[in-house]
Amino acid sequence: MQVTAIVAEYNTFHNGHRYHIEETWKKTDNSFIMAIMSGNFVQRGEPAILEKRKRAEIAIKNGADLVVELPTPWATASAERFARGAVYIAHQAGIVDNLSFGCEDEDISVLEQIARILSDKVYSRDIKKYYDDNMCSYPEARAAVVSRILGKDCSEIMMKPNNILAIEYLKAIISFRSDIKPVGIKRSGAGHDSENIHGNITSAMNIRNLMRTGRDYSSFVPANSLPVLEECMENGTFPALYSNLESAVIAHLRKMKPSDFIGVPDVAEGIEYRIIEAVKTSVSLSEIFDKVKTKRYTHARIRRIILSSFLGIKAEDVVSLPPYIRVLALNDNGRMMLKEMKNKYFVPVIMKYGDVKYLDNDAKRVFELESTVTDLYNLALPGRRVCGTDMTDEIIYIPGV
């Protein structure tokens, strides 16, 4: 059995994702696909537009065989922690042969060179020194050090959006001394977060904007996903909107003191004081983000800090690694994969809520956090849902796909 893992948010699943799976099949001899997918909140620091199990269902209908969850503490983390969490799940599953990821440059040999440099502790000290001396963002400091070693072209390569994550996947593979083989798939069509349209492909951000504003997005997503999206719209579970949570998030922030930010991931250098002051003079999240932003703190990092604070995620949650593998959806091939994993996985596999009682205390804490996070996500839905759904919603099984 040849198994390839794909790390994704599928927020939302579109034709570009389908293309990625098809190209992965070509490069890996039609291997089985395990998708490691973000849960109900994503790395942008906001709720996913569609609930995780429905996104997993669409992924199964379009080529994935097994979809497992990347828990929220890692799904909403920096690129490095996001990648480490996902690659750790692939590594610990015990059956993954390849890791397929999108990148701007199909020849990943340069990306591997960069990953090796960034994995070297000597260069890590150089990056930290450049960061401190030049008051720049951390990605800029990394690019400067790599440019000095490999040349300016390499530093430009590593700053491209998909290459940033690709390098982090490669670093994680090195860190875990994993035998997983990296497979780069050159990104096709519209760029990351672009509003450009190339045939029937545009960015996930552009599609989400169309969904939020009620405009036609049907040509940019696989036809078999439309009935799922329409059903979710009818029952009030799509689209999930951050604006539905905005008052709750701002109310949470208005009650906070600088000391309350101790232990929130990515908080450093007094950024908590900027957040508190911005909250006092703002009535929207966008205002807060704009006022807190600095050269060193990007919008994305600020959004993640504020979301982590609201959701109750602590730094201790993300310095560790995912303590279990949770199944969201599968087909018959996925069942075969789970059977193969049975004697090979190195962390517990959760198929149903009853499995939680067998977890250790640290894993139970992560699961309980995930359940609370879903309770908050349910308030972002057009038709709000009650608490406890993360424990009662069942795995999606699609036979014969």
Model description:
Helix 7 packs antiparallel against helix 8. It is built from 19 helices and twelve strands. It has two domains: 245 residues, Rossmann fold (3-Layer(aba) Sandwich); 76 residues, no CATH class. The protein has 401 residues and is an alpha/beta fold. The strands form three sheets. Strands 1, 2, 5, 6, 7, 10, 11 and 12 form an eight-stranded mixed beta sheet that branches. Strands 3-4 form a two-stranded antiparallel ribbon. A two-stranded antiparallel ribbon has the order 8-9. The chain is globular, with a radius of gyration of 20 Å.
List the helices and strands and how they pair.
Blueprint: E1 3-8, H1 15-27, E2 32-38, E3 41-42, E4 46-47, H2 52-61, E5 66-70, H3 72-75, H4 79-93, E6 98-103, H5 109-118, H6 121-134, H7 138-150, H8 152-158, H9 161-175, E7 181-186, E8 197-198, E9 201-202, H10 204-212, H11 226-234, H12 246-254, H13 271-280, H14 285-292, H15 299-311, H16 315-319, E10 325-330, H17 332-341, E11 349-350, H18 361-377, H19 389-392, E12 396-397
Helix pairs in contact: 4-9, 5-9, 6-7, 7-8, 13-14
